[in-house]
Amino acid sequence: MEVKLNKLKQDKHIDAKKEYQAELEKYQRRLLSLQQLLFREKISLIVIMEGMDAAGKGGAIRRMTAELDPRGIAVHPISAPAPHERRYHYMQRFWRKIPQYGQLTIFDRSWYGRVLVERIEGFAEKEEWKRAYDEINGFEKLITDDRYIMMKFWLQISKDEQLKRFEERQNNPLKRWKITDEDWRNRNKWDSYIEAAEEMLRRTHHDYAPWHVIEGNDKKYARVAILRKTVEHIEKYLTKKGIPLPEYALFNA
């Protein structure tokens, strides 16, 4: 996937609250229907959420899971590995979080930290993060050759929009916990993160585990777009497998 993240137009938006709610509810209900079908067919869904700091990953995840059966969902927020996890191969902690058949798992950041933050901050040697592309591709192919659907989202916002969101968090006591000194420090490495992300997208985008780049300046548009693309990807997978799609009319009443 060749994409210039800094050159995304960021002109996609949903203005009307009524339109936003209608689209959101439509795809939330469809995803609920598909979740139940995947459970019956014992097929798992893995969703990867990556993006620039303050791009809206958490909000998108909340809207994605809001109407789903909580018994079949796990959301894993990924941060730096704990000391005991550093004793193993970096993928070990992710293998333990792979869902059982029929379940849905969302990774809020993921193994792609190896070629993003670990690369930029020097936590992985150059030889280590360079070979990680092949390791990740092999891992994702292994998973999706089995009973797993995998899709990956990169949420991109402009540098000006990120500053606006950082300042909003800094000035709002209810949101201040979302902003840290590390966020401001990472912002100073914007160009390095963009370069790493573009190489990641180029080298790890495959039909079996595709990347979807989402313009995130408008949060409402991004949330609906992620839900819609998730539904469409699952439908495409099921159709290819010859599995009839749900009767959506029952969920749109």
From TrEMBL:
Keyword check for Coiled coil: yes
Annotated protein name in UniProt: UDP-galactose-lipid carrier transferase
Gene3D superfamilies: P-loop containing nucleotide triphosphate hydrolases
Start and end residues of each Polyphosphate kinase-2-related domain: 17-237
InterPro entries, sorted: P-loop_NTPase, Polyphosphate_phosphotransfera, PPK2-related
SUPFAM superfamilies, A to Z: P-loop containing nucleoside triphosphate hydrolases
Keyword Kinase: yes
Keywords: Coiled coil, Kinase, Transferase
One Gene Ontology molecular-function label: polyphosphate kinase activity
Coiled coil region boundaries: 10-37
